[in-house]
Each structure stands twice: as C-alpha cells, then as structure tokens.
Amino acid sequence: MATKRNEEIAREREDRVMLLRTRDRMSFRDIAAEINADVKNTYQAWKRGRVRLHQEATEAFGAYVGEQLATCQQVIDGLMPLVSKGGLPASKAGEAIVKAMDHEAKLLGLYAPVKQNVTITDEMTARVKALADEIAQLEDA
C-alpha cells in the first residue's frame, strides 16, 4: 500500500516525465537518464501520467458541460415567461431562446456530423477549371 508521500513522489515523477516527453520531445532513454531511472519505469510513469491527465480533463470537461447546460436552462427559463407575456420584443427573445436551445443541443451531442459520399469525376474537374477561366476573364474585362 502506497503512502501519501510515495504517491506525491510518483505524481511528481509522472509530471516531470510528461513535461520532458511532450515539451522537450526527449526520448524515453534520455528522460530515464535525466531522472535517474530505468527506461521501463520511465515509460510506465509516462503511461500513468497520461491516464491521470485524461481523467482530470474528462472530469473538468464534464463540469464545464454541466455549467453550460445549467446556464442554457436559466436563459430559457428566464426568457420564456417574458415571451409569453409580451415583455420583450418577441423576435429578439425568440432568437435568444433558439440560440440557447441550439447551444444546449450541441453540448448534449445531438448534432451528429453527416457523412457524405462524394465522387469527383474528371468531367466535374474540367467544369470547375472552365468556370475558373470564365471568372478570370470577367475580372480582366
């Protein structure tokens, strides 16, 4: 069982390895020599550091998304009664509500990218070149 001090030392080593690897672009062999460790332990520290940073980023992102969703809901809840009673110009308030709902949908991942299967033929390429030539002639005129 690792003590709190051992965990701190391991984290410091992971942070140092991550910094040397990503910022300084050092090889694991050079990093191992720098921190006085073997290459295998250096590589393992790098892997642990990446996992930890990924988890921290995921948690931070989740908190950010939660804050954004709460803000969107406050905007929508606050504007809806005003629109119903005619307290604001309907077009401006409606636009603000739609923008908040759009942002909310993006945060929730409801807008999936659409994959298009496009084939470009030689005929299309020739037509584009012809149009480019026509545009160039119009600019010259």
List strands and helices in order, with pairings.
Elements: H1 4-22, H2 28-35, H3 39-85, H4 90-107, H5 122-140
What would you note in describing this structure?
The chain has 141 residues and is an all-alpha fold. 79% of the residues lie in helices and 0% in strands. The protein has 5 helices and no strands. Helix 3 packs antiparallel against helix 4. The radius of gyration is 28 Å and the shape is flat.
> How is the main sheet built?
none
Shape: flat
Question: How far do the termini sit from each other?
Answer: 82 Å
Q: What is the H/E order?
A: HHHHH
Radius of gyration: 28 Å
> What proportion strand?
under 5%
Helix/strand-derived category reads mainly alpha
Count of individual helical segments: 5
The low-confidence parts are none
Tally the beta strands.
0
Fraction of helical residues:
over 70%
Q: Mean pLDDT, as a whole number?
A: 84
Short précis:
Helices cover 79% and strands 0% of the residues.
